[in-house]
Write a structure and sequence with these properties.
The protein has one domain (about 1-125, about 170-195): Gcn5-related N-acetyltransferase (GNAT) (Aminopeptidase, 3-Layer(aba) Sandwich), CATH 3.40.630.30. It contains 6 helices and 8 strands, in the order βααβαββαβαββαβ. It has helices spanning about 15-25, 30-40, 60-70, 105-120, 135-145, 175-190; strands at about 1-5, 45-55, 75-85, 90-100, 125-130, 150-155, 165-170, 195. The protein starts with a strand and ends in a 10-residue tail after the last strand.
Length: about 210
């Protein structure tokens, strides 16, 4: 098994939406993701893809047919994704989710850390995100990476009018944090065996 961080493409949207509908109420629309991927000039959408060998066909005829048709020997599964907006020196995390069946695997942290690294590469002065006041698990992850509560946004979530914490993390004004983050990020990628083609790169044209 291997993991790949890369920019989201239009063909990823069906898999993204499958996770989206199980993670958020209301979910973003497929049209919104298509805009973020192919039209927005400030969006940096990321996916984490897991690659694993496919089980070999038991029937030798089917195995030979697969070789003849050049079917792939590996299967790709989208396990997490996120959205980063970079506007006027601000890195704003717009969304983040991991597959509900694969949570507690560290995939959400990998995507989150990749968006921090992408923000640093882009020269962000600071980072911002919103999180439900009741989502203690997400808050713990964000605090782990040095985000603090900056304020409260009342009735932020449409579904139940729950408040959101506005959490922020300075970057450019805290070079010690940036240095420590680079060390931490490299160790995180190595621990999970991740190939990062996202945080230091540019989106490929759609």
């Amino acid at each position: 098994m291997s993991l790949l961080l890369r920019y989201m493409h239009l063909q990823d949207i069906p898999d993204v939406m499958a996770i989206e509908h199980r993670s958020f109420t209301p979910p973003w629309s497929a049209r919104s993701y298509a805009y973020e991927v192919s039209q927005s000039t400030y969006s940096h959408m990321v996916v984490l893809e897991q690659t694993a060998p496919l089980a070999p066909a038991v029937n030798p005829i089917r195995r030979a047919w697969s070789r003849l048709m050049h079917h792939p020997t590996h299967g790709q599964t989208l396990v997490a994704y996120g959205g980063l907006w970079f506007i006027n020196g601000e890195g704003h995390i717009s969304t983040i989710a991991s597959h509900p069946d694969l949570r507690r695997s560290g995939f959400g942290e990998l995507v989150f850390a990749a968006m921090i690294h992408r923000s640093i590469v882009l020269g962000a002065q600071y980072m911002v995100l919103e999180v439900r006041v009741s989502n203690l698990g997400a808050q713990a992850l964000y605090r782990k990476y040095g985000f603090d509560i900056h304020g409260v946004k009342p009735n932020y979530y449409q579904q139940n009018h729950e408040d959101a914490y506005d959490m922020r993390r300075p970057l450019a004004s805290d070079p010690a944090y940036v240095r420590d983050f680079h060390v931490r990020y490299r160790a995180l990628l190595a621990a999970h065996g991740v190939n990062d083609q996202y945080s230091a790169g540019r989106p490929e044209p759609e």
